[in-house]
Amino acid sequence: MSDTVLNQFTPPTEEEEIDVSRKLKIGIIGTGWIAEAHIESYKQMPDVEIVAAADLIPGKAEKFFKRYGVEGVRLYPDHKSMLDAEAENLDAVSVCTYNVTHAECTIYALQKGVNVLLEKPMCVTMEEAAAICKAEKESGKLLSIGFQPRMDDNMKMIKKIVESGELGKIYYIQTGGGRRRGIPNSTFIEKKTAGIGALGDIGCYSLDMVLNAIGYPKPLTVTGYTSNFLGTNPLYNNPADAARFDVDDFAAAFVRLEGDIILDFRIAWAMHIDTPGDTIIMGTKGALRIPSTECWNGTVGGPMTLYRDVAGEQTQTTIPLCPEGDSFGGLFYKKIRSFLDAVKNGGEAPVPTSQILYNQAIISGIQKSAELGREIEIEIPEI
Asked: Which of 7, 49, 54, 90 is deepest in the core (most CB within 10 A)?
């Protein structure tokens, strides 16, 4: 194999200089765990001023900003009161709330004429996803979804290899991931706040890793399965958490994609094995193996391997990891910076809803198929 694939991507060595002539006024909706990554990134940006925030829990937002040493933020008891008072003063908001409130917070912000960076998963249901996309279209504002692993140089390499044509026509993908033990707690494990479990928490990242690499083809049908055997069992989970656990801790699916592509997917918060397998992208000319990875942290599990036949011989080439890669915080910074640059310069959303709508369609399809116990067609509404 030529050096074309290995040499076609060079990670950037310098960050672009930030224009500080215009300050961006930011609001944060929800001040829980994920908001910590947002504020840590915002604090590093000289062109950002956090001016408003909202949280449903009394006193939580005040403690949050005091902990991070950010003063002068106007605080509100909910997203509507904040946006009603601040919309004309805001350039953008970060939506960092429970999964089940992603849609209502995002839609209201868009209707008020505010750009939105929405944390993943996009929402819980396809009906919510369609409503979000409709509000975005009608508002003319920018909406980007929070998939920071896309900013990692190794993740970009996967897409570069696929787009190079070295694999030929893609026809089969295996992806997913998981943890032998890694069940979260707090609001992640109840339908009333999370809506979905491992499928939406980390499964959406595994789907995005491969779907983004192959150009996000439309999903057509799905056979899905979900379970929560370990999450509800006090032998494997904190007894108090096991008692209230009512979301999935494991999901698997067989998805048919447009272009005659098969997607074999599995994800787990907990299981009796170290990994459900590597990610594999198979094509008519070659295949790519991506070692089992916690891709939600923006990493791959090790050097990738490219399999090809060359001069009649079966070969395999190691694709070296891009130097150092990025830390979780670094990727968050890049995610937020790319969104703000698009807001400033009138650019496109770094992670557009037109793609994540398909991601959500697969997740919702897996849930529906699992409930019905059969294969279903994936219905995607016109926006």
From this structure: 54
